[in-house]
Design goal:
four-stranded parallel sheet, Rossmann fold, six-stranded parallel sheet, 2 domains, alpha/beta
Amino acid sequence: MVLLHLVRWLRDNTTHECHLLLLRGGPLEPDFARAATVVRSRAFGLVQDTAALRARVDRLHPRLKIVRRTAGPLGLAERVTRVLAQRGLRGRAQYDLVYCNTASCGAALDAMAPGCPVITHIHELEYALQMMRVSFAKTKGRTAFYIAASHAVRRNLVENHGIAPGAIGVVHEFVDTTEVLAGPGNRDQIRLSLGLSAEALLVGGCGPLEWRKGTDLFTQVARAAVNLAPDAPLHFVWIGGAPDGAYREELLFDLAKWGLTGRVHFVPEVQDPAPWLAALDVFALPSREDPFPLVCLESAAQGVPIVCFADAGGVPEFVETDCGLVTPYGDTAAMAVAVVRLVQDKVLRCSLGENAQHKVRARHDIAVAAPQILTLIERVAKFNEPGVRP
């Protein structure tokens, strides 16, 4: 979504021409295609070191053969050139800048744009970077400048990856606040869909059901909060994730043992989360690692205060002391105390929510962040030098 907002803004506010290489397709592909020239490749899968994997499998099972469907570096470069030529863009095949939107673009950089300056926008912290370490090593070999999604991301790049501080700029994640607030919210209707009364106090979380996002910690916060305020109409809702699966069943098992089956609700992935976020009283971020999740900005844009862990990513940089409460890392009991404090103190909750809404508009709207990125793009590509065309 960050990249989509940026490409749209560049299209509408600059003369720069964007071509977008998608390593895989996905639900946003039609939106990207309306904003830029799109080339999609199936050349890259999740396997990074196919030679090592093939050797290992050959040792264990000599009769097995691994066949990887890939165009390879040369095939991808040829495909990009061919698609551009078909669209009358042959002369633009030599780019002024490559902008990587993730740390895991190394294989694509091997395939195209030799000698072209590269900016890599890092939206990942150390756990995620270790999962893509082979590709990230290739990315580092080509990157001239980094954009970090938060100061936490920047610190990690410097301390754990030896990247020079001067080669990293921080541009916090951003949303289109006009788009977030475009749809009507219906607080009562959301509660009705969960079988709740209009008086129910709703604490929300959002994202895939997974360890990194801390969905299990979310259920522990719910347990502790309900124990602290047993008479409050307090309910927890997690938005997103698969509607079934082993991890979800494990969470439901614990909830049943704790007597919370009717207090914690799982809502599968929704097309538009804005009405759900607008219906919340508090947004709880239990992530173990999260660079700067957009859902916090989207909730804040709706006037919802945030509770999060310290040392888990960049969100404390947004919350500070005026948009919610920050609790010690992994301390679910402390987060439960913070949640109960906010749901029981409406004046404080509304004050922090209003601050959050104002801060998103002032610091984290596309109209504020995109010009910062444009300045970095033009500096690295040297568009601003005399005699160099945009």
